[in-house]
Amino acid sequence: MFIRELAIDLGSSAVRIAVRGRGVLLEEAALAAQDRKSGDIPAVGAEAEALLASSTGRFTARHPVQNGVIADPAAAGRMLRGMLRRVMGRSPVRPDVLLCLPGFATPVEERAAVDALTGAGVRRVRTMETVRAAALGAGLEPARPVGSMVVDLGHSSCHAAVFAMDCVQEQQCRRFGAAAWDLALQRHMRREYGMLLGSRMAESIRQSAGAGHPLRIPGRELQTGRSMEAELSPEELRQAWTPAALELREIVEQTLELAPPVLLGDLRSEGIRLTGGGSLIPGLAEALSASLGLPVRTVEDPLHAVIRGATAGLGQKEKPSPIRAETQTAAF
């Protein structure tokens, strides 16, 4: 049976494509490898990662999605075409897509995403706000007459929203995400140790920390460029991350302050659900709960909450985004 409808979570670090009843069919890095000389893009996603790891400088990495929206239309189109081809195979059917977009996406940014998908062979595109998909994927029921809240912390975007009666009662969407923790650590290492810490290593530390033991962090001396190591205790790591944690707390507090007061009592019992890869930062839920005075918990499998919610939204009637499907040709 041909696939006729897909859900897509187009993230800054990963792209996830799912089908209702079959789950996630593709989950790969939001990445394209470009030949430095010819400008061609021979590989995308996981294939691009492998090519970049094995090449000797012939290829450069391109990141088509920044802050949850398309920043490089040409590379994004090539990336999506390659990924959709892997999902669709030789299917003659041009699928419909339900695409998750951040609430801060401008009409121009939404248009770029729709154009990239229709150019890759998609027939029709509908959009769903990332925060609504996150709420559905977290198991919330936004249509209930009681207040509920979700905070989705992605790689470079953050959404905090209070729902009730199937409406977003208040939300904050920022171009801020888990990458802010990486940047905070890089700045700390530079300031306190004179160390240059790469972004990949900072991300790896964020993703692997949590054992409660001191961490040996490799980097390079700021002045000489020579290799060096520094040891950080769990407490110092938390201190290094403090600027990012405070910004997240401010986003959540502002959402709560602007939400209808009548719903705050519901949130004291319902609590706040955390989704997205950033929700896995060690101690994040506990720190938020302590500072807000509300129950906060990370949902099960938070990385896939948005794509779960989008998949649940397949088949629902929503206003489609304007597209130029009649001018496109099949890509599969």
Q: What is the oligomeric state here?
A: single chain
Using the coordinates shown, work out and report the CATH topology of the largest domain. Nucleotidyltransferase, domain 5
CATH architecture annotation of the largest domain? 2-Layer Sandwich
The overall pLDDT, averaged over residues, is: 91
- Indicate the radius of gyration in whole angstroms: 21 Å
Order of helices and strands, N to C? Answer: EEEEEHEEEHEHEHEEEHEHEEHHEHEH
CATH class of the largest domain: Alpha Beta
Number of structural units classed as domains = 2
What can you see in these coordinates?
The protein has 332 residues and is of the alpha+beta class. The chain has 2 domains: 5-132 and 309-327, Nucleotidyltransferase, domain 5; 141-298, Nucleotidyltransferase, domain 5, CATH 3.30.420.40. Helix content is 37%, strand content 27%. The protein is built from 10 helices and 18 strands. It has helices at 45-54, 73-88, 107-119, 130-137, 179-193, 199-208, 234-258, 264-270, 284-292, 305-313; strands at residues 5-10, 14-19, 23-29, 32-35, 43-44, 59-62, 65-66, 69-70, 96-101, 124-129, 148-153, 158-164, 167-174, 195-196, 215-221, 227-232, 272-275, 296-298. Strands 3-2-1-9-10 form a 5-stranded mixed β-sheet, with helices on both faces. It has a 5-stranded mixed β-sheet with strand order 13-12-11-17-18, with helices on both faces. Strands 5-4-6 form a 3-stranded antiparallel β-sheet, with helices on both faces. A hairpin with a 3-residue loop joins strand 2 and strand 3 (23-29). The two termini are 15 Å apart. Mean pLDDT is 91; it is low at 319-331.
